[in-house]
Every structure is written in structure tokens, then in C-alpha cells.
Amino acid sequence: MVLRGFCYVVFGWVLIAIVGGLAEVFGLTVMLPATSAVIVTHVAFSETRSVPYGLAIAIALGYLEDLHQGAPVGTLTLAYALTFLTLHWASGRVAVRSFVTRAAAAAVAIVLVDAFTFTILLSLAEPLAVGRAAVIAAIGGVHWHIIATVLVAPPVWGGFDRAFVALRLEDGPPKKVHWSGGR
Amino acid sequence: MAVSLASVRSGALIVLLLGIPLMLLRNTAQDPHRMSGFDRAVRRIGGPLEAAVSYSAGMLGAVFERWVLQARVQDANEDLSSENRELKRQLRDLVTLREENHQLRRALQMRDRVAEDMIPAERVGVDQSPVFRVINIRIDRGNRYAAPGMAVLAPDGVVGRVDKAFDDYSDVLLITDPRSKIAVEVARSRAQGILIGEDEDLCIVDVSKDYEVDEGDLVQTSGVDELFPKGHPVGKVLRVEQLVGDQQRLYVLPAVRFDRVDVVWVVLAPAPRPDPAAGTEPGDVKARGLQPIN
Question: Which of A155, A182, B211, B267 is the least buried, fewest Cβ under 10 Å from its Cβ?
Fold first, then answer.
């Protein structure tokens, strides 16, 4: 389980770097996917039910996002932690089996991340030396963030499934995923 | 409700873990611009990773861009080739127009030089020998204007005479035709003779040995036949052959290239005779208006 968690963090870090590199090369500033949100969703809806384990991964990924995005350190860390707890709570009630539901779950995850992030930034704008007007203006581009994350969610999710199977780190029986959600 | 030890331990861990971001936020709030040693270490580890990804993505982007650029260059090349073909076609048209303009200007200049009454005519056909030498040309003036025997001139020199005149066109007997006879003279020595067609591009004229004639001398019309205006170029002496007796034979190369003639002039009537009173002062004519009364 520790190795699986380590893989989550390392692969997540690589994906953050890839997104940053591609954004720099192609000059993208708005429509960037949050691969870490997809990973946190994957962790929350996996068979592993240990909350501290998933929370630690979410905090690590949030911290890396903080450093790479240049956000006040701790903002995305806390946002990802709260998002994981919410998704973990939902995972006991909702099944995510198909590509569509995975994309929908990733969309919910990124909405939660953005909501928590903007709430933290607006609440602590003065101590964190962040302009409220800039934060409010950034809310206008959130839909691009959500669309990009939804688009990358199925391949990222599937990639993690395949990687864990290849590394023999899967935590349940082999799954066969259909568009309709059948298993 | 019983609470297991595992649940308590898990809850404690969750609280402890949630304390990490709160602690990070607290530190950031205290000094927003300060990075801890751990932050710097993580950035230092992640920097090369991001740089490597950026480099790889940049290389991929460059290949993609080059591919797109190559496609654009190919499109531009096709456009330029098409434009080049069109411009070459226009250039050919312009060269043709320039040559036509040049010939028309020369024809107009000749019209100013020659005093005879003339009418322009355009060449509409040629008869060529098997070796592509012109033996007859056809002009677009019929018997309403031209009549057999009328002289036909070009800016470069004498072409020949109208042989047959039809309704819409006329055939011209070239000076190289053996049936052609024209009164000519050597411009330098005034040696006169009758030019007769000899070959497809050669004429002969016999003149007296009393006159000195050299190769390259200009032969022109003498005007004594009252068909051709005097002094119009006919050709150049190519060779001089001394005949038995007091004659010498001149072989003359026509001044006109019959295969390049497009516009010619048909001489309709001789020039009017000069006015003998021209150039003299008019007589003193007294005014008939206000005069003193005698």
C-alpha cells in the first residue's frame, strides 16, 4: 500500500510537470487540466478504504500543486485534503465504474478543489497578500479548468489502472470498464 | 455505541494530517514571500523534471510546427508557381505587344519620310519554300485600294509590287521573284540599273563598269520607273562580278526580311510635284482697307 501511495505521488508529480511543460510550450494559460484532482478522485474511489492513507496522498499532491502553480503554500494542500474527504464520503454512496462516471467524478472533484481554493483565498486574502479582485476575476475561467480536467480524466484514470496492474499493485480483482458502467 | 481503537487512531491521524496544510497556511500567512527549506528542496527536485518535460514537449512542438510550416511552404510554393506561370504568360504578351508597337512606330516614321500617297496593309499570309524562305506574301488590302503594279514598301526597304488584287486581299510579288524588275541605283556612286529577282533571297543588277561599286554599298530605288519613291533602300551589295564587256553584275541582298514583315505600305499615287513658287517671298500686296485717298 505504501508503494502504491508512492506511485500516486510520483506519477502525479510527473503529470504536474508535463502539464506545466506543455502549457509553457503551447502558451496555454487558461485551459489546463488538474491531473492531481483526477488522481485524488482515483484514490478516493479505489478499493482501499484507509482515510489517512488517501488523505496523505491528497496533501502531498496538493503541496506539489502549490509549489508548481505558485499559489500560497498550503492553499491547494488544504483544498485537496478537504476534497479527498468529501469524495471519500461520497465513494461509500456512489459507484464510479464507467468512463462517463469517472469524468463526472473528476468534474465534481475539480469543482470542489476550486471552490475550496477560492474560499480559502477570499477568506485569507489579506494575510496571504492576495488581491480579492484578482481571485474573483479568476473565477470566470473556472469552466475551462473543469472542461480540461474532464477531458483528461478517463485517460489518466485508465493509465493508473494499467500501471498498477503492470506493477502488480492493484487493490482488487481485475476490472473491465464499459462506457455504460457495466463491470 | 462502541468506538474501536482503530477508528480513534484513524481519526487522530486525520486530524494530524489536516493540521499540516493548516500549519503551512499559517506559515505562509505570516510571511507570504518566504519559502521554507523543504519547499526549496522540493522545487529543486522538481525543477529538472519539469525542464526535461518542457524540453521534450518543446521538441515535439518544434517537429509539429516544422511539419505545419512545411505544409504552408508547399502551399505557398504552389501559389507562387501558379503566379509565376501567369506572369510569364503576361510577359510573353507584353513582348509581343512591344514588338508590334515597335513595328508600328517604324511604319509611322516611314509614313513621315515618304511623300507618296500610301495606305498601310497588314500581312495576312505567306507562301514559303520547302526551306522556309518566303516567296510570296499576302496583304489585307483588296482591289478597292490596291491595283496590280503598285509598289509595296516596308520600313526597312522595298518589298515588291502588287501582283494580283482580289476582293479582300492582294498578293505581292517580292523583289526576289525573277519576274520582278525595279529601277535602282547604287547610293554612293549613282550607278543605275534594273534590279531583277534571282533567288529566294538574292537579286542581281547589272551596272556600267564606269562606276565604282564595292561590296556593302547600299542599293536604293532610283525613281525613274515612277513606281517606287526615289531613295528608298532596296538592299546591300553582296558581291560584284565583272562581266565580259562594259558591265558588272551586282548581287544584292534585300534589306527586308520577308519572314518578319508584319505591316507594309502600298503606294497609291506618286508624290505631288514640288511647287516652283515654294520658298519665295510673296509679292508686296497693298492693303485695300484704310488707304490715303489719292
Answer: A182
